[in-house]
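So, can you check?
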Amino acid sequence: MDSQRTEVNRNKIEVGIIGGRFDKVSTILEEFEPGDRRFIHAYEKIGVAPRKVCDIGEREVTVKVPARLHPTVLDMNCFNLNRPGGGGIGISIAIYFHARVKAIQAPEIRTTGERSLIVRHFAHIFKALLGYEGGFEIELYDHKRRHVGLGSSIGSMCSVCIGMNEVLGRPFAGWELRRIMGYHSCEESPMSEGCLLPAFETGIGAMVGINGGWVVASDDLVMVHRVDLPNTKVIVFIPEVKSLEDEFMGKETSAESEVELLLRRARSLDAMQAGAKAQIVLFDMLPAMIMGNLKKMGDALFDLSYLGSKRAECEQHGAFGTPIYQYINAFRGMGVEIAGMSSVGPTIFALTQNPEVYDRAMAYLDSLNIAKTRIIETEVDNTGGTVTENGVERSFINDNWLKG
């Protein structure tokens, strides 16, 4: 409970930003405790109209949100702390976050399960934004694959935000939740127990978490286009690379080293190649999405995998990206329609609608003696987040409350 909070010494990480040739400034990540008002932003900054809730009784829902793959950001020079954006591509997959959220009369925040620091902070955000005098009981479970490119943090945020929004009578629309998450994105600090750090956010995780399918986004958390990918199987695996210091924990790929990647090498390459990336999306990716041509979508993504910030992300895993690119190229060579690396990796994914190709891809991984614990066989989730109340499950995508 929040009344038992103790003060801790806050650490800071200062990282120099290098984007364009003459762009050299610094950004600072400062630790904070859940509920720190300095890290709860005003409606004006978020770009959402103010509103209040009152006289909320006890109400309980359960939420299920799919995980996301994030094949690429379009321009990392367009985001920083407190300024989400940058655009990108996202895929919703059938690996899930589960949350139970209950509105209670007592003005307390009670958490169980996992990611309690993130959960508590977003509970404080909702109470502050809405003037809500009651409290929450929240139980959350993530998918256990943290800091490897599967969106464990944003999926956790999305689950609890959807749940709190629902039990409070849905004061926010889906696009507004996206902005609340984007401006308050955070992760657990690896330096001090009980503290969080601000995080960088494109909005992709919230878009696919709510809407499902395949999404293209532009800057300022705007969703440009979304399509279903029916009957599409997904192979996800986490290769053994030197950048993983601890199995599935991501100590080496989170916090300072990841920030340095995003704010230096990745920005520098995007400063030179973001225009080419945008042209590929506009002239190749979007038409292929509209036509439902998975192969051409994969062709466009393959080109993007070697450009700008995605190249920097692949390179961080050693040998100028060779450990990552060898898998992407192998999958494409055997007929997989779409292959790539998710976020800063090292998670590799392969999407196909061809059962024979799927079998070949699995046989390939088996020939390399990839441990079964590092492979997830699933499919594209075209439904997005769902809420279950009193035994009835409903999907947000059918609620007609989305914008952008």
